[in-house]
UniProtKB/TrEMBL annotation, chain A:
The chain crosses the membrane at residues 35-56, 112-137, 149-170, 176-195, 282-301. CDD domains: TM_PBP2. The keyword Transmembrane helix applies. GO terms for cellular component: plasma membrane. Pfam families: BPD_transp_1 (PF00528), OppC_N (PF12911). Keywords: Cell membrane, Membrane, Transmembrane, Transmembrane helix, Transport. It is found in: Cell membrane. GO terms for biological process: transmembrane transport. InterPro entries: BP-dependent_transpt_permease (IPR050366), MetI-like (IPR000515), MetI-like_sf (IPR035906), OppC_N (IPR025966). It is a multi-pass membrane protein. Belongs to the binding-protein-dependent transport system permease family. Coiled coil: none annotated. This is Glutathione transport system permease protein GsiD.
From TrEMBL, chain B:
CDD domains: ABC_NikE_OppD_transporters. This is Glutathione import ATP-binding protein GsiA. Keywords: ATP-binding, Hydrolase, Nucleotide-binding, Transport. It comes from the Bacteria. Belongs to the ABC transporter superfamily.
UniProtKB/TrEMBL annotation, chain C:
GO terms for cellular component: ATP-binding cassette (ABC) transporter complex; periplasmic space. Residues 27-64 are annotated as: Disordered. It comes from Streptomyces lavendulae subsp. lavendulae. The lineage of its organism: Bacteria, Bacillati, Actinomycetota, Actinomycetes, Kitasatosporales. GO terms for biological process: peptide transport. One of its GO terms (molecular function) is peptide transmembrane transporter activity. This is Glutathione-binding protein GsiB. Residues 1-25 form the signal peptide. Pfam families: SBP_bac_5 (PF00496).
UniProtKB/TrEMBL annotation, chain D:
The gene is dppB2. GO terms for biological process: transmembrane transport. SUPFAM superfamilies: MetI-like. The chain crosses the membrane at residues 115-135, 147-177, 193-210, 255-277, 297-323. It comes from Streptomyces lavendulae subsp. lavendulae. One of its GO terms (cellular component) is plasma membrane. This is Dipeptide transport system permease protein DppB. It is found in: Cell membrane.
């Protein structure tokens, strides 16, 4: 395809391979307070998610235990008490209808969100890099074929196919793994395009030619010469993908094809909460707020990583320093 | 002549770098004047601050965070303190600038005539129609054929030389008193360069324009200006009338610079006797052809039109074959085919007498761009060691020893093994590239424009290194370059390429002194001479030829 | 209708059913109801007048508006405005509304001695919308059409009951011979010959398949675009396959021939495809034309009920109804460990019906059930509770039984449910059951299937899951269509849709079903259905969970709301907006 | 130009063919018997068999697929009862299993809603998104830019259904400024159409605006740093004229072209928004179809969406090529 359809092209281009060493990137990243704050939020969240069983013990609340006595059955099961039934036992109140503890369920939900988002991203990067490299370095016909498949993958209505796929797979297949697979397998097209484009431009660079002249095989060149240079754009893309995948997971759960109950997930909670916004606003705002903060934190961090990897932004508007050119 | 056209006093320009408050000094207390109608060249190597000075004359640093010190007056306007309106009147109206890259310097979305007209209307009260007429007029003046029609074309429909003419036309539009040309010919082929320089010269004579020429090429300056100002590190090293500076440079740096400039007329370092014809050629090419693309977009790169013979050549041990040609002549494509990076479309290549396909064993390459030729993420030692490892060498100590030996051999230090490319200068990187090429002990090295991205002083060092290595190791060299003087310096034989074919080939002295092909003659004539007198004679000769 | 389900068609069925309903008892909690004429909600005061436009805001479109294709209970709500049938529902509130009454026919039908032959005579002066007379030949043709594969849909009874019905392929393929078991001696008389005694035939004759279709006007699958009306309204516009349906008065309908339909409004404007939330929001705001709006298929959700709370004005506009329906846990006793009655009983003891009712939307939307038959007189409801679990389950007793069954260390089983968001066979109910059984040491793994897959699994006799959520609704208010398909051993279908999940084939039960079918005294039949229910219930072949309750809003300007125990929703033919 | 169109057309057809084949294959793996779905509740085995025969489900999957393709290209005939033959004109996508409506007709009916939604969002992001982007690029470092950074970050951090839900909650439930949105076709009442689509537009437009503001900003900055801008600055062209005359076109060309792509994607991609606001569009149709394994509807919608995406891609390239004559149509 042409110029435009080259997919998501993050600002970090390979054409400036001098993104700097890992340490420089790290230093630049640390200088951005927003990125640091986002990282802190995420670290806290990961910690909380990991410690979910601990909190369950601490509060004495099983995430799946019903409390029929805490909801008003005659009024549709709305939690008794104020703010969605907040009490010493139930720090963030309980779920309408079942009386399950919201705090512990939110923590367990975080595990799913994080697991699926990170897992799917890893799979996307893996598949995308493999496909992109093969398309760029393999035989011309193979390259075209992969390019075509990539185009199809990008054109596919991802959410819809994900829904369809989750319906096809046997119900006893582990759900979080299924989500990772579905999101990962359906959404690597962008990464593949990026890697292919970047590889093609890298391949024309002299140092790659020099490596070929030295008698290196394609695989060795890909591993030693290309992959390190692809790291920056791929990391940037991955950083953008994590929050996207988290939203996709939440969307699938929101549409009712995510993880299976009683496993809690934020999207699922939002899905059942959507009718409750007037009767029990806390039930909507808690998962919505958490999801928002998490996705935002990932996005901010991703943005920070992108800028750290591509420090050109700031130095663009300089006049009169055009390099002398010859040839 | 009450006031100089340009009067710079203690000009200082600092650029912000990295953290706030950190600055890099680009121009350091430069003072000079330019009288109306005179021409001054700012000459220097990269980083000397010459382009920054040019931009400062028009106040182009405003709003970029750069700090200016000292004063600059252009046509009576104090650039440093002028308000936005005064500055706008100055720009284009009093002083007009011609930039280096004519393609990117024009707006791709608008017709060239409209762009000129737009500039004209800013400085005059002309109607749209009058402005368009003026655009056609100046385009016609700079030698655009059929100017009325071509004014409606967009930049990409023009050739490089035409674009530069159009830029000059834009500069002329408002009848400025000063023309600032920042590397106006650097992106152009040598024959086109000569035409543009002639055009600038003619305009000066015709309109009495002042000219400030910024260039890295002393040759370009020699034929075009009255005075020369040699810059280094943001300050003036030497200034004076062009004849005097070129013939009797006073500053050591100027002398060094001039000595490094390759000349067509200078003495050649004696070459060792090349191997005799009886030797088997290290590389031999038969009727090579190569094209890119298909159908309408087919581009013939090497081999000329369909019925032509293709390209055949042979290089022997210890011999250097220079290949010269302008851009698009197919010289780089040919070079890549010789080492096997590109498959020939047809024809055969023999290395050491055997036909090869794909990467040729024993063939290496030195690339043009010192930035992209080294992997920025690997230490230079690893880059040099790469061919060794690829060849199956596993003994780490032996590899390290060999790489350190190579580093020493190309004039670097063994301790540089673990450094990364960005820690080196362009010349040093090119040395690393040479070391890498030497590592597998090749019999042939193809150098594709190995010095064209380097400053002249560095150029000289690198070419000297190459010659020395060849003498020592007896390698066959193919030296590809657009710069005829450089090729003359390093080659035994030279092949002149045009349109994918070798139009002339022979021993260097023969081809340079008695060119047989008219194209070769044109090329040689177009090369700027360091002698202002010779440049003037050549110019009038060219003008007669075209008259 | 039986299981409702998710597919749109099926859901449409449910809708029509619901629509079909008449007046229901108003819930005791609806104090404001007393003011209104019918006992349902609605503006009180002045008597209902003719005129105006009634807007129906629905979720499911009124698709396939062809009498051959509709699957209704009692002829449906909207369909019944256009299609008159031999018999119909009694349009009255509560239990009285569960009775069947004559419509086109002069009486409920005259059976022969063993109830295998039913004869009907048409009233005088019956006309189609074009003024031409309605004949019994058209009724015969209408029924024959429903056998055509092109016009799929509808209930299976005609096929099962009529002689030759199982092989008949409809009038388009029979070479003009017709179905011999329907005899039309003259234009006013029609006789049905059945394979076996069916005392409840008058109930069947309420379904839209018994509506007359003039052969000359039959346009096959396109008939649904403009079916010929025999009722008080005719189709003025039908777009999007019933997504919007505009009905206008049929001037050729003679109210003198029709005692049931009041037909107050001049126009009925049915708008569907709306989200439940939107429907309820519009009805509660009730502004502009929405003041004269009702819904026939959308319940108030739990959150909306929570919100209505103490708002008296809103509460007064909520109609409460009961449709014969049961949601239950089904067992397949051919699958271990459910072959062990003690295990099934243990589960019956362990179930926490409070959690389940809460999951179904709370006590306003569901009533805990221990009997299979709904708690309505018409079904022959007889209370019983063989495995008393109390309000929140009896895990101790359950553990004891498990121990006896040899599962002292607990037990792991799989519960199959659907992923539909219907609060009936959905994940919420399944997790509530899961939690309750956990207390009795039973680990429940959940297997959630998409609706179609779920239905296919539970209807597949060869592959029925061992333990799953199921539900059943009545095609008419009687024990027959409730118990026979579920427990009659001869109705086990091995390569089609099987509803006898337990695959019970008990000769005694079969014989009793046959015996009751012979009764044409429906009250007597009711008692015996109730007794049969109790007898089967003791075998713990299923665990009844709850009977759903319908809570629906009407607009501020809606009068004469009648909700019968047949349909559980207000009857459109009774509603007035002036 | 002709070559370009032909090549794009060929590629597009291949993509669509592949798409339909994938969907077909996928759905035959899915559990669920279409005949039973089409037949409805309580069908007996004979009826199901008849329906299966009528739908041609007894043939092998490839045969069915070929017949489907034939229908798309040349139309198909179906038996409609009463001697009626239903002719389904090309492009015939078959009949829905669920309610045996012609899929083509169904899609045509749903398209306006989706189109309305996408159109409003497009207008919002072109006006607000691109406008803000330009503004913040011109006033670098100003308040607009800072605000924009925050808003765009927040936007990328919000799942569409959360914003939609919160908007519904605030605007409809608490403030009661608007009634609950119900889709009203433009033809019925343009004013109601707009009012009812306002929230969905805002929801969708917000996200796209944020994205486009960011995109426009960086694109404009990039253009402003180009050499030709420097040329005109050096000839005394004022900053405003630089932006409006020389930067906007280059900066906005890729943005506009990308808009075409996004518009195409939105034809199928607004599943969540349609779902949340109950807009009877393609996305909702698709989700409903997938849930009940209604193959003809799903294939139909996917093909429609695919076509939209492909057309949008081609339009984008054309727009881009028209805007930037340097780009050859490749």
């Amino acid at each position: 395809m042409s110029v435009l359809t080259t997919g998501p092209v993050p600002a970090a281009g390979v054409t400036t391979p001098a993104a700097g060493t890992g340490r420089q990137v790290w230093r630049r990243l640390r200088r951005r307070p927003s990125a640091v704050a986002a990282a802190a939020v995420l670290a806290l969240l990961v910690l909380l998610a990991l410690a979910a069983p601990l909190f369950a013990q601490l509060t004495g609340q099983d995430p799946n235990a019903y409390h029929d006595d805490l909801v008003d059955s005659a009024r549709g099961g709305v939690p008794l008490g104020s703010f969605g039934g907040i009490s010493a036992d139930h720090w963030l109140g309980v779920e309408p209808g079942s009386g399950r503890d919201l705090f512990v369920r939110l923590l367990y939900g975080a595990r799913i969100s994080l697991l699926v988002a990170l897992g799917a991203t890893a799979l996307q990067v893996l598949l995308g890099v493999a496909a992109g490299l093969t398309a760029a370095l393999g035989h011309r016909i193979l390259g075209r074929f992969i390019g075509g498949v990539t185009d199809v993958m990008i054109a596919l209505p991802m959410l819809v196919l994900a829904i369809a796929l989750t319906a096809v797979v046997p119900p006893d297949f582990p759900r979080p793994l299924l989500l990772v697979l579905v999101i990962g397998v359906l959404d690597w097209g962008g990464t593949a395009r990026l890697v292919r484009a970047q590889t093609l431009s890298l391949r024309g660079l002299d140092f790659v030619e020099a490596a070929r002249l030295s008698g290196n095989g394609t695989l060795r060149i890909a591993r030693r010469e290309l992959l390190p240079s692809l790291a920056a754009p791929v990391i940037t893309l991955a950083a953008i993908k994590v929050p996207t995948n988290m939203v996709i997971e939440a969307s699938l759960s929101f549409l009712g094809v995510g993880v299976k109950p009683p496993t809690p997930s934020w999207g699922q909670m939002l899905s059942s909460a959507q009718t409750w916004f007037r009767a029990d606003p806390a039930y909507v705002l808690l998962p919505a707020g958490l999801l928002f903060v998490t996705v935002l934190a990932f996005t901010v961090l991703g943005d920070g990583v992108r800028t750290a990897l591509d420090p050109r932004e700031g130095s663009r508007l300089r006049v009169g320093t055009g390099k002398e050119r010859t040839t | 002549m009450t006031e100089p056209l340009v009067d710079a006093v203690d000009l200082v320009v600092d650029f912000p770098v990295g953290a706030p408050g950190e600055y890099l000094r680009a121009v350091d207390g430069l003072s000079f004047t330019l009288e109306p109608g005179r021409a001054l060249a700012l000459v220097g190597e990269s980083g000397s601050g010459k382009s920054t000075v040019a931009a400062a004359l028009l106040g182009l640093h405003r709003g970029t965070g750069a700090r200016l010190g000292g004063t600059v007056r252009v046509g009576g306007t104090d650039v440093g303190s002028a308000d936005a309106g005064e500055l706008r009147r100055l720009r284009g109206g009093v002083a007009a600038m011609v930039f280096q890259d004519p393609l990117s310097s024009l707006d791709p979305y608008h017709a060239i005539g409209d762009q000129i007209a737009e500039v004209y209307r800013i400085h005059t009260t002309a109607t749209r129609r009058a402005a368009r007429a003026r655009a056609v007029e100046v385009l016609d003046r700079v030698g655009i054929p059929d100017a009325a029609r071509r004014a409606r074309s967009r930049p990409h429909e023009f050739s490089g030389g035409m674009r530069q003419r159009a830029l000059i036309a834009m500069a002329l539009a408002c009848e400025p008193r000063l023309l600032i040309a920042d590397e106006p010919t650097t992106a152009l082929d040598v024959t086109v360069q000569a035409q543009i320089l002639d055009l600038l010269h003619g305009l000066r004579e015709e309109r009495g324009l002042g000219l400030l020429l910024v260039t890295h090429d002393v040759g370009v300056a020699a034929g075009s200006v009255d005075d020369l100002l040699v810059m280094r590190g943001g300050a003036a090293v030497e200034r004076g009338p062009v004849d005097r500076v070129l013939s009797a440079p006073r500053a050591p740096y100027t002398r060094e610079l001039l000595a490094a400039v390759p000349r067509l007329d200078g003495p050649r370092t004696p070459r060792p006797r090349p191997a005799t014809d009886a030797d088997e050629p290290v590389v031999e090419a038969f009727r090579l052809r190569r094209e890119f693309g298909r159908g309408k977009r087919r581009v013939l790169a090497v081999g000329g039109p369909d019925r032509a013979e293709g390209v055949s050549l042979a290089v022997r041990r210890g011999e250097t074959l220079g290949i010269v040609g302008e851009s698009g002549s197919g010289k780089s494509t040919l070079g890549r085919m010789l080492v096997g990076l590109l498959e020939p479309g047809s024809g055969r290549i023999h290395h050491e007498g055997r036909e090869t396909a794909g990467i040729a064993p024993g063939a290496q390459m030195v690339f043009q761009d010192p930035v992209s030729s080294l992997n920025p993420r690997r230490s230079v030692g690893e880059s040099i060691a790469d061919p060794l490892r690829a060849a199956g060498q596993r003994d780490e100590a032996a590899i390290r020893a060999r790489v350190e030996e190579l580093l020493t051999r190309v004039g670097l230090e063994p301790g540089h093994y673990d450094r990364y490319p960005h820690e080196f200068s362009g010349g040093q990187r090119q040395r690393v590239g040479i070391a890498r090429a030497l590592a597998p002990q090749p019999s042939l090295i193809v150098c594709d424009e190995p010095v064209s991205a380097l400053d002249v002083t560095t150029q000289a060092q690198v070419t000297a290194l190459l010659a020395e290595l060849q003498r020592e190791l007896g390698i066959a060299l193919v030296f590809i370059a657009h710069d005829l003087a450089v090729v003359r310096q390093v080659s035994d034989r030279v092949a002149v390429m045009r349109g994918g074919l070798i139009v002339e080939e022979g021993p260097v002295d023969e081809v340079y002194d008695r060119p047989a092909h008219p194209y070769t003659r044109r090329l040689l004539d177009a090369v700027p001479a360091l002698d202002p007198g010779l440049a003037a004679r050549r110019r009038s000769a060219r003008q007669e030829a075209f008259a | 209708m039986r299981q409702s389900q998710i597919s749109r068609r099926v859901a449409a069925v449910a809708v029509s059913l619901v629509l079909a309903g008449g007046a229901a008892a108003c819930g005791p909690e609806d104090a404001a109801d007393k003011a209104s004429a019918g006992g349902g909600p609605g503006a009180s005061g002045s008597a209902p007048q003719k005129g105006g436009t009634l807007t129906v805001l629905n979720n499911e479109p009124q698709s396939d508006f062809d009498p051959a294709r509709l699957y209704t209970s009692g002829g449906g709500n909207v369909p019944s405005l256009v299609f008159r049938t031999l018999t119909t529902r009694n349009r009255e509130d509560g239990p009285a509304g569960a009775k069947v009454v004559p419509d086109l026919a002069t009486d409920l039908g005259r059976p022969n001695a063993d109830a295998t032959e039913w004869t009907y005579t048409l009233k005088d002066g019956l006309k189609y919308e074009d003024g031409s007379p309605i004949t019994t030949a058209d009724i015969k043709y209408g029924i024959e059409r429903s056998f055509a594969a092109e016009l799929s849909g509808g209930a299976p009874y005609l096929r099962d009951w009529l002689v030759g019905g199982e092989t008949y392929e409809g009038p388009y393929k029979d070479g003009g011979k017709g179905l011999d078991s329907i005899v039309v001696p003259d234009a006013k008389t029609i006789v049905f010959k059945l394979r076996k005694p069916e005392g409840e035939f008058p109930f069947l004759a309420t379904q839209t398949q018994f509506a007359p279709v003039p052969k000359a006007k039959d346009t096959g699958v396109k008939y649904e675009e403009h079916p010929v009306s025999s009722g008080p309204y005719k189709v003025a516009k039908n777009t999007g396959d019933g997504e919007t349906l505009l009905l206008e008065r049929n001037e050729n309908w003679d109210p003198k021939t029709d005692e049931e339909r009041k037909a107050y409004p001049d126009r009925i404007d049915v708008r569907s495809g709306l989200d439940a939330a939107v429907i309820n929001q519009r009805l509660s705001t009730s502004s502009g034309p929405d003041a004269a709006a009702v819904t026939t298929d959308t319940n108030l959700g739990p959150a909306e009920l929570a919100q209505i709370g103490d708002n008296k004005e809103l509460a007064s506009r909520v109609g409460t109804g009961h449709f014969g329906y049961v949601n239950y846990l089904a067992f397949n006793p051919k699958v271990a460990p459910f072959d062990n009655p003690k295990v099934r009983q243990a589960i019956a003891y362990a179930v926490n019906r409070t959690s389940v009712v809460n999951a179904a939307g709370g006590s306003a939307l569901a009533e805990p059930a221990t009997t299979f038959l709904p708690e309505r007189e018409a079904f022959g409801y007889t209370p019983y509770d063989p495995f008393p679990a109390g309000k929140t389950g009896n895990p101790a007793k359950a553990k004891e039984l498990l121990k006896e069954a040899g599962f002292a260390d607990g037990l792991t089983i799989t519960l199959t449910h659907s992923n539909a968001q219907n609060r009936q066979t959905s994940p919420e109910i399944a997790t509530a059951v899961q939690q309750a059984l956990a207390a009795a040491g039973i680990t429940v793994k959940l297997e959630g299937l998409e609706t179609n897959a779920f239905n296919e699994r539970r209807w597949d006799a060869k592959n029925t899951p061992g333990f799953f959520l199921s539900r059943w609704g009545a095609d008419w208010p009687s024990g027959g269509p409730f118990l026979a398909p579920i427990f009659d051993g001869r109705q086990i279908v091995t390569n089609g849709s099987n509803y006898n999940h337990a695959q019970l084939n008990d000769p005694a039960v079969n014989a009793e079903i046959d015996e009751i079918a012979k009764l044409t005294d429906l009250a007597a039949a009711g008692k015996r259905w109730g007794a049969l229910d109790k007898k089967i219930g003791e075998q713990a072949l299923d665990v009844p969970l709850f009977h759903p309750v319908y809570k629906r809003l009407v607009g501020k300007g809606v009068k004469n709301v009648v909700i019968s125990d047949w349909t559980g929703v207000l009857d459109i033919s009774q509603v007035a907006v002036k | 130009m002709t070559g370009f169109v032909l090549r794009r057309l060929g590629a597009a057809l291949l993509v669509l063919l592949a798409l339909s084949a994938v969907v077909y294959a996928l759905f035959y793996l899915a559990p669920g018997d279409p005949a039973r779905l089409a037949c409805g509740e309580r069908c007996n085995p004979q009826q199901i068999a008849q329906v299966r025969e009528q739908l041609g489900l007894n043939d092998s999957v490839p045969t069915q697929y070929l017949r489907f393709l034939q229908g798309v290209l040349a139309g198909r005939d179906y038996s409609g009862g009463a001697g009626l033959v239903l002719h389904c004109d090309a492009p015939c996508l078959g009949f829905s299993y669920q309610n045996d409506r012609q899929v083509t007709e169904l899609l045509l009916e749903r398209l306006p809603a989706t189109f309305s939604l996408a159109l409003g969002a497009l207008v919002i992001w072109l006006v607000i998104g691109v406008g803000t982007g330009l503004l913040s690029a011109v006033r670098r470092g100003g308040l607009t830019e800072r605000l924009l950074t925050v808003v765009t970050l927040a936007a990328t951090g919000t799942p569409v259904f959360i914003l939609g839900l919160l908007l519904l909650m605030a605007v409809c439930a608490y403030l009661r400024w608007l009634p609950f949105p119900t889709y009203v076709p433009f033809g019925d009442d343009p004013e109601q159409w707009a009012w009812n689509l306002l929230l969905p537009w805002v929801t969708l437009g917000f996200f796209e605006s944020a994205k486009y503001a960011r995109l426009t900003r960086s694109s404009t900055l990039e253009t402003l740093a180009e050499d030709h801008i420097r040329t005109f600055r050096a000839y005394g062209v004022g900053e405003r004229a630089l932006v409006t005359r020389h930067a906007v076109r280059g900066a906005v060309a890729p943005v506009i072209a990308l808009s075409a792509v996004d518009f195409g994607t939105m034809i199928g991609g607004a599943v969540l928004t349609e779902s949340l606001f109950g807009i009877p569009g393609l996305g909702k149709t698709l989700i409903d179809g997938v849930r009940v394994v209604d193959l003809p509807v799903v294939v139909g919608v996917v093909l429609t969406i695919g076509t939209a995406v492909v057309i949008a891609g081609a339009v984008a390239d054309l727009l881009y090529a028209v805007a930037d004559r340097r780009v050859a149509l490749a």
